[in-house]
Every structure is written in C-alpha cells, then in structure tokens.
Specification:
By secondary structure, the protein is mainly β. It has 1 helix and 14 strands. It has one domain: Jelly Rolls (Sandwich), CATH 2.60.120.260. The longest helix is centred in the N-terminal third of the chain and has 9 residues. It starts with a helix and ends with a strand. The strands form 2 sheets. Strands 1, 2, 4, 5, 7, 10 and 14 form a 7-stranded antiparallel sheet that branches. The N terminus is likely disordered.
Length: 181
C-alpha cells in the first residue's frame, strides 16, 4: 500500500531492480514539475520548461538584478520515503550556469534543504551516480557542515534542481531520468 501511494502521489515507477525511476523521456513525467524563479522574492531571472520527445528541457537566464540570482525546476510537493535507497542516478546534459540536485523536507523556503552540485556537461549527455548521504545541508544558498542523514530520507517532500552559481547568464538543463537505487 505504501509503495502504491508513493507511485500514485509522485508519479514514479518502481521497477524490478528495486529502484524508483522518474522517467522524463518515455513516460513524460515532466508535467508534474514546475519552474520557480527568484521573482518570488523580487528577482528578475527567467526560466521555462518544455517536454520534448525524450526529455524535460529547462532553460532560461539568471539575473542578479533586484536581489535575484536563481531559477529552479521542482517536483510539486508530495511526501516520499526514499530511506530504503542509498544512491541516486541522474542522466542529464547542461550548458551555461551549473546546477545542483536538491531535496527538501519542508514547504517553508527558509528551512534548510539538501543539495549536491552537478558537473557541467558542455551539452553532452552524462550519467552520474552519488550517495544520497553526500548531499549537504544548505540554508538560503549557503552550505552548512551537515550532510543528509539516512533517517531524513523518509521525510523528503520535494525533489528539484536549482542553478548553482550566483552570476548572470543563460542556461539549459535537460533531464532524461532520475533513479533512486
């Protein structure tokens, strides 16, 4: 029942390898994701998403004007327990400003979240895997010493990606899939 609830609420696929797959290509899971820019705080950055034949494309431009500095692509709030998984695998390509993968445990923007930087790919597809416990706690964009604890993985309410450099510039970030394993 719990697995069915996770699949229903989060539109995930539990596959035979005992992993959770969010597939933006074949299964077109991008419709459950939203763009949030710094305009929520008065900034002027722009971002948009487009569901392509094989991916979810997120593109835009970061502006530092009016205290801006970020654009993000986020899954709608929905509780997910990923405490049975140790790693996350992401297939993506990017250009321009670098990105970070993020996990949130609260709807409040000022509550610290967890993130890890992703390497730029110069528009080439890359598959990267890292330990979930390697994500670092961040408070309003500033890294703290704490790392994500295994027990916190049962409290995740949002998955996302955010520009990881506070500088002017255009970006493209394209996702094929995210797999928790």
């Amino acid at each position: 029942m719990k697995t069915q609830l996770i699949i229903l609420l989060f539109s995930l696929t539990l596959n035979q390898q005992n992993s959770i797959l969010i597939d933006f290509g074949k299964e077109k899971k991008g419709r459950y994701w939203n763009v949030v820019n710094d305009g929520v705080m008065g900034g002027l950055s722009k971002g948009g998403k487009k569901i392509t034949k094989n991916s979810l494309l997120f593109m835009g431009e970061v502006s530092l004007d009016n205290n801006g500095g970020f654009s993000s692509l986020r899954r709608s709030f929905s509780k997910i327990d990923i405490s049975n998984y140790n790693d996350v695998e992401i297939r993506y390509r990017s250009s321009g400003i670098s990105f970070a993968f993020s996990l949130a445990v609260s709807r409040r923007w000022y509550v610290p979240n967890y993130k890890i930087s992703l390497e730029s790919t110069s528009s080439e597809w890359k598959t990267t895997t890292f330990k979930l416990t390697d994500l670092r706690k961040h408070y309003i964009g500033k890294a703290l010493k704490d790392r994500l604890k295994k027990e916190t993985l049962k409290d995740i309410i949002r998955i996302g990606f955010i520009t990881d450099q506070k500088k002017y510039g255009e970006f493209e970030f394209e996702l094929d899939y995210i797999k928790f394993k």
